[in-house]
């Protein structure tokens, strides 16, 4: 079975082709991505209207490329999957509209996928795919959640951020340091030249006794520190970046270990853009090795948004019987859509 996946929830247009056969883990045949980062950079963040218009321009050429790369033709596609939410409404509508139009034209069913389920299942595309059950640390630009995952569509929320997401903490701190948008990767690169102990920054909710996170106070602390440094900031920027990264990573690490202990599970899956962070990977690897816990990550290129994870999640949902593809092409999108809401279905 061939699944074409389309991702357009925010500022990357992603298309991918996945082949699923029986109970085997579906296989990625090809994927293509267009990031709008350059376009939004001038505005310091994503401009929704520009994002929608650019998805319209990119999605069909990307689909053509993906099919050509896999040596397949459009009529061979069995299911067209798309990101139904959460994300920017106008951006989501482009992917949903194109997917449903393709499905209707081909006479093939369509399937709307939860963007975060895509992130969550993206490690199944890696060379070292996990097995169920596991604790998932979902750390992206808009979400920070710990989840107990028993199987496809069986997600129990253990804890989540009460304000900013981890990726947002990276991005907002990076913006304060003049590192552009999205600043997470830039801040992380700069941090490699800095001293992570140079500045004492807060570790919010570290000892809260639950599995929730809070990152809003951190950016204020970074701003305060930057102001205090004044003209001395440029010389200490790498130190401040390293200290910021260390604060975020320590909280993610401690809470992940607490979630493993609370659930008694022996496997951790990290997903979402912040999962690309080197310091986070090093610290999780070291701590989990000591505990005998296996850690799984998506391939670096598939940590941030992409079409492969959407095609993969669709194929896995179909294989698990968690959802059926539909020939009702009257699509809708869900800009706000908590992941645990799909569990009941
Ligand atoms: P969501 O999935 O919650 O809707 P999103 O799709 O915008 O949000 P992702 O694409 O998963 O989020 O990830 C983007 C985020 O990952 C950004 O905040 C970015 O700064 C962060 N990020 C990417 N690479 C790194 C890195 N190496 N270190 C830290 N943060 C990173
Ligand atoms: Mg993005
Ligand atoms: Fe995402």
Plain-language structure description:
The protein is α/β, with parallel strands linked by helices. The chain has a five-stranded mixed sheet with strand order 3-2-1-4-5, with helices on both faces. Helix 3 links the parallel strand 4 and strand 5. Helix 5 packs across helix 6. The protein starts with a strand and ends in a 25-residue tail after the last helix. The model has no long low-confidence stretch (mean pLDDT 96). The structure holds adenosine-5'-triphosphate, magnesium ion (MG) and fe (iii) ion (FE). Fe (iii) ion binds next to helix 4. The site of adenosine-5'-triphosphate has 22 residues, from helix 4, helix 5 and helix 6. InterPro entries: ATPase_NBD, Gcp-like_dom, KAE1/TsaD, Peptidase_M22_CS, TsaD.
Observed structural traits:
345 residues, alpha/beta, five-stranded mixed sheet, 10 strands, 42% helix, 19% strand, globular, binds adenosine-5'-triphosphate, binds magnesium ion, binds fe (iii) ion
């Amino acid at each position: 079975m061939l699944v074409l996946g389309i991702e357009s929830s925010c500022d990357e247009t992603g298309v991918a082709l996945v082949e699923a056969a029986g109970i085997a883990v579906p296989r990625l045949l090809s994927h293509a991505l267009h990031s709008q980062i350059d376009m939004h950079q001038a505005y310091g963040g994503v401009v929704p209207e520009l994002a929608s218009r650019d998805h319209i321009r990119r999605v069909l050429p990307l689909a053509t490329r993906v099919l050509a790369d896999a040596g397949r033709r459009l009529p061979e596609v069995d299911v067209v999957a798309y990101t139904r939410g959460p994300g920017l409404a106008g951006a989501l509508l482009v992917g949903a509209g194109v997917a449903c139009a393709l499905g209707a034209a081909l006479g093939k069913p369509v399937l709307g996928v939860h963007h975060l389920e895509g992130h969550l299942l993206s490690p199944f595309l890696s060379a070292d795919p996990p097995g169920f059950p596991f604790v998932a640390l979902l750390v992206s630009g808009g979400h920070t959640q710990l989840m107990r995952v028993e199987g496809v569509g069986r997600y129990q929320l253990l804890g989540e951020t009460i304000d900013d997401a981890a990726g947002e903490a990276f991005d907002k701190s990076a913006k304060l340091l003049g590192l552009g948008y999205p600043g997470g990767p830039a801040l992380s690169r700069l941090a490699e030249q800095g001293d992570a102990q140079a500045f004492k920054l807060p570790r919010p909710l570290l000892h809260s006794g639950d599995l929730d996170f809070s990152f809003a106070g951190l950016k204020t602390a970074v701003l305060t520190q930057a102001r205090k440094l004044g003209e001395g900031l440029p010389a200490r920027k790498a130190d401040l970046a390293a200290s910021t990264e260390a604060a975020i990573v320590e909280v993610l690490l401690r809470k992940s270990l607490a979630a493993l202990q609370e659930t008694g599970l022996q496997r951790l899956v990290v997903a979402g853009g912040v999962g690309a962070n080197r310091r986070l990977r090093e610290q999780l690897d070291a701590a989990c090795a000591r505990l005998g816990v296996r850690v799984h990550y998506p391939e670096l290129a598939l940590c941030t948004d992409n079409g492969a994870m959407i095609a993969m999640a669709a194929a896995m949902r179909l294989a698990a019987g968690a959802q059926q593809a539909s020939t009702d092409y009257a699509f809708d999108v869900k800009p706000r859509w908590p992941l645990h809401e799909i569990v009941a279905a």
